[in-house]
Amino acid sequence: MKRILLAAGAVLLIAAGPSPDAPFRVAVIGGEGACAVPGAAAPAGERAYAEHLQARLGREVRLCRYPDTAAAARALAAGEVDLAPLDPVAYAPVADKVRPVMTVREKGALTRVPAILAVKAGAPQRALEDMRGSRLVFGGRMTAALDLPKHTLAQHGAGDGFFAAEAVAADEATALADLRAGRADGAVLHAGAWRRQCRGDSPADQPCKDLAVIWMARPRADLAMATRGDITDPERFRLVGVHVSMHLEAPEAFTWATQGFTPAAESFEPSEAGALSLAQMQ
Amino acid sequence: MGGGRCFAWVSLALLATACGDDRGAGASGDWQAQMRQIRMAVRGSEDDPQLARRWDAYKRRLEAATGLPVKLYESSDYNGAIQALSSGQVDMANIAGGGYANVDAQIGDKVAPILTVRDAEGAVGYYSAVLVKADSPYRTMRDLKGKALGYVDFNSTSGYLFPRAKLREQGFDPDTYFGKSTFAGGHTQAVMALENGQFDATIINVGGGTPEHGFTTGAHYTMARRGVVNVDDFRIIWTAGPIPNSAIVTRTDRPQAFIDTVRGAMAALPYDDPEMWTQIGQADGSTYTAVDRSHYADIIALRDGDLAQRRGRRP
After folding, report:
1. What is the dihedral of CA B42, B47, B53, B59, to 10 degrees?
2. What's the whole-number average pLDDT of chain B?
3. CB contact under 8 A, B68 and A10
4. Which end of chain B is more exposed for a tag (fewer CB within 10 A), N or C?
5. Is the pTM here over 0.80, yes or no?
6. Could you report the predicted ipTM of this complex, rounded to two decimals?
7. Measuring CA to CA, which residue among B59, B55, B84 is closest to residue B265?
8. Is residue A280 included in any domain, yes or no?
């Protein structure tokens, strides 16, 4: 019975999506013109991308040129394209109609690792805004411990001058020790470090029960590939699955597809729906 | 209207054949009709509730992503998943690098790794550690000459393959240096056997840190968090690594759309549902990252070398 239901679900999921006969249209920033399959005169990378995507999706792939991300965002919201690179400014007016699905990671860079801000349990601060003018300590000098959280805090309005003091501890354990000792009002760690410090070594061990997380967020993406918001999960997963391995399977296509993101791209990475907004994690 | 649309208008009971059009299931639907179910091999989880939660979460995720039933094949030993993959009895597996190397030796590119876990700091590996009891006199590898060593399993990467290669590099012949070598059958069993005095030392996996800063994950940490052992009863005296993290692997003779959908669904999981991601034992801030065979080239070479070494010893 379960199998029948799942099979029926699969049919519905497929049926709800776009026709497999319909072209898959990808917005390209720069220039203007009707959607078209890249011709023989098109750059090799452009043709490689369209051919790779077409082979993997089983649909003709057309590239549609728009002068800027705002125009691409409008086209995506209107259903004139299926995938478009958007930045936060272009995304905002169409946020209710589209959703980010992928970002690009630079060579040697980390993924969009969440940062957390913890205070002592019972402290009066309950949100990031409450921390204005307070003393902060970061849990080390590594990129994940310092650069990424600082960048994320700045995106959320807590950049230079927001805190009265910003110290950098030798490591995550020292940062929490500084918080507990009152040498800082808040400690910022990346989510993995927080987990390491707080998970405990036995069922009864709750090493961070004296602390409270008041803010947690991933860095907002500067640019993300977005689809229409009503894309089905199976369609989205297939699209993401084709892209996240593109650097391995079709390097020429990958280099072309990511040139607008960064000249030193390493891979496509999936993203959450809120990647282009200042969303907080629960 | 394209052929794929017609399903919206027919009774569910009619399903794919009702449209009478080869394009009915559409390019994106043909593979589901072809596969009908997804069979996934995973390590047995009877001694680790977190693993059971992880496999259940993966099953539900893949069922939702594909609309197909997912059948889990839990193997009590490492060889079960290896043989199930090699023989084509399963479509995909979650398997360690050494296990994949074994499959690769048997069937080559008929199986390929598609995803592995990258931690928040960008690392994609874990470590092998020699564990002794804290109240034992053993402090270095030199103290273990002639002693009883427990390996995890012949097909274990961190509990056999990788540390043996590193021991050889450091001048310890693992086949002659220890007085006795035994296979415990699993990481949990290896720790329990050490706890019970069956070995003087055992080699297990550890992670969530570095030799310099200490570790926070691994068999004895997991067991301690469940209250089975006390982490302070053990001491790590030797480590080797990093070892490439385990992989989600798929048979390459399955439909490409299946492989792409699985890759996308699993890669998006930590972003779609970060709470579930951590509930199943994955570290906060970690993600899946796409890999291919080259990511495990060193492990494949170690496996080949170990097999050659063992064959060379036969009379």
Report:
1. 20
2. 87
3. yes
4. C
5. yes
6. 0.90
7. B59
8. no
